[in-house]
């Protein structure tokens, strides 16, 4: 059947980009308009305010770039740092590694704390390093909240407590690309100084928007920061955004899509969005247990609610499972990256999805594993996930009835 048309839809279960809901697709289907017209701010100004609710901040400044999350990474660093500044960064996956390398390309010195892949940021080690930094040479801590490559979520609140316990003035930079909008993220409460996300994951949009939130403390460092910046200059955006405009041409359809995305999230309720992701992730973990396999995350405290990185048995290659799923079942699963390449495959369970959609991915992964020779009991993962969903939903119904 090589080269033949594959009927039906592609099942997209990588951890981003995620499925774009029909509502958002329709909202983006707009004619072009003058982005300097008097009416344009009626679209844009509410977006900045509504995004603050997603970051859970009152004081933070939201900026929306036509870029990927990587552009927001770059903006966060270049607007607040100068070449030669020292940063501290735990490295425990491909995306923490890439952020470190981006910082180094801008002439920043990064002290790397190597952590085992499958774990996350270690607050105790961060506190120890900051206590030892008597001269306060470390200017910032780079933490990936949700490491997509390994399916690991770090405790950002614990990192803030470590910084405070050390009495250190370093800024807290957080990559929330695969967490914000899906996993509880509390910018103000956790004392985050710069957080970034992208449009193509929990925000349920196509790729193309890099979204940044900066604290007043971070913004106060812009004037002294000497890293070169132009396209990602925060001052240009903040000045233009105040009137509802942008310093250059914005990604107009994506802004309309973002308005619809925010409406959908608030209709569901942020707390319910977070609970739904935890519920779907737990069903996936039940399937993994039933298969007799393990997650890359070393302990339950590290397990991500947006992506499960599933280790394949010794002697098998996760890439074979992924290729079989794609070629035979029209199912897109995430690949292992860098140190875990070939050792695992990933099921993304974030964005706009429900139980039946996820059960399709679990079924496809199960069939693909069996096809390449991995001995899992047919139907075991699907049955375990179904049973989890049934029991969890029943328990929720009983609580509602009791109330």
Question: What topology emerges from the helices and strands here?
Answer:
Elements: E1 11-13, H1 22-28, H2 41-55, E2 61-66, H3 69-78, E3 86-91, H4 94-105, E4 109-114, H5 123-132, E5 138-144, E6 146-147, E7 152-153, H6 156-165, E8 171-175, E9 194-198, E10 209-214, H7 216-219, H8 234-241, H9 252-268, H10 270-291, E11 307-311, H11 318-329, E12 331-335, E13 344-348, H12 355-371, H13 380-402
Parallel strand pairs: 1-12, 3-4, 3-5, 5-8, 8-9
Antiparallel strand pairs: 2-10, 6-7, 9-10, 11-13, 12-13
Helix pairs in contact: 1-9, 2-9, 5-6, 10-12, 10-13, 11-12, 12-13
Could you characterize the architecture of this molecule?
- By secondary structure, the protein is of the alpha/beta class.
- It contains 13 helices and 13 strands.
- It has helices spanning 22-28, 41-55, 69-78, 94-105, 123-132, 156-165, 216-219, 234-241, 252-268, 270-291, 318-329, 355-371, 380-402; strands at residues 11-13, 61-66, 86-91, 109-114, 138-144, 146-147, 152-153, 171-175, 194-198, 209-214, 307-311, 331-335, 344-348.
- The strands form three sheets. The chain has a seven-stranded mixed β-sheet with strand order 2-10-9-8-5-3-4, sandwiched between helices. A four-stranded mixed β-sheet has the order 1-12-13-11, with helices on both faces. It has a two-stranded antiparallel ribbon with strand order 6-7.
- Strand 6 and strand 7 form a beta hairpin.
- Helix 10 runs antiparallel to helix 13 (380-402).
- It is globular.
- The model has no long low-confidence stretch (mean pLDDT 96).
